[in-house]
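Regression test case RT-17, inverse folding.

Input:
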């Protein structure tokens, strides 16, 4: 969800600014060339390392624009404070503020960032035939993987034909079909869809909410080699330690 807002004071909390070079594909799938990322204002991510905002840090590291993390103490209920509800009435993280734009929902944030800052690179161009596949798997993560895994784990009673996520078995088959026989979701080309879809898979695997097939395990391992993911993991871990958070 993307909305616009009048200029507003950032809620108080831990603010840590980061910037990195933006990577642009040149030639091979894993060959990147750093270029200067231009942004009139620093992006602010309202963040807690135990929320979906942790994966948005990976998105920002892949994009390579300057950003600031504003720690929101969800354990103390700070995400339900009036100033946070003004940004997201759901009272949930992540919330990304980019100038006058406010974006919530992790997948929406990833697509927004890639379209705005990396169109033609991390996001296929609007007339690129690969954009359909890119959007498909980006939305598959929150629409199918998350509820499908929760339904399985909690033993929900539902009719698969009426649920958007279908059966657990069909979900697993679809995941395998997305990654089998290729490096990334778009073949040899890494994209923001891999951060959204792959980030969800990595979370599910970490907490043993999915049993990985060999293609899924290999795919998750390839994602783990991304320098941007390693930087994001280190930054989330640094905040966990600074705030004395377990896990």
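Golden output:
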């Amino acid at each position: 969800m993307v909305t616009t807002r009048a200029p507003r004071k950032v809620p108080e909390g831990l603010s840590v600014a980061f910037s990195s070079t933006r990577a642009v594909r040149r030639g091979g799938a894993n060959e990147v060339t750093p270029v200067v990322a231009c942004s009139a204002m620093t992006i602010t991510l309202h963040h807690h390392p135990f929320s979906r905002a942790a994966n948005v840090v990976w998105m920002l590291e892949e994009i390579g624009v300057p950003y600031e993390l504003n720690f929101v103490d969800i354990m103390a209920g700070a995400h339900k404070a009036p100033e946070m509800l003004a940004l997201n009435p759901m009272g949930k993280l992540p919330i990304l503020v980019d100038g006058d734009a406010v974006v919530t929902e992790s997948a929406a944030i990833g697509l927004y960032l890639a379209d705005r800052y990396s169109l033609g690179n991390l996001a296929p161009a609007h007339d690129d035939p690969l954009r359909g596949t890119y959007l498909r798997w980006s939305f598959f993560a929150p629409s199918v993987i998350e509820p499908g895994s929760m339904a399985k784990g909690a033993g929900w009673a539902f009719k698969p034909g009426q649920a958007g996520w279908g059966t657990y078995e069909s979900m697993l088959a679809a995941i395998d079909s997305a990654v089998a026989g290729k490096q990334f979701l778009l073949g040899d080309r890494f994209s923001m869809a891999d951060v959204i879809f792959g980030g969800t898979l990595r979370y599910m695997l970490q907490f043993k909410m999915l049993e990985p097939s060999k293609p899924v395990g290999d795919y998750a391992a390839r994602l783990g080699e991304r320098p941007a993911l390693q930087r994001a993991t280190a930054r989330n871990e640094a905040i966990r330690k600074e705030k004395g958070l377990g896990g």
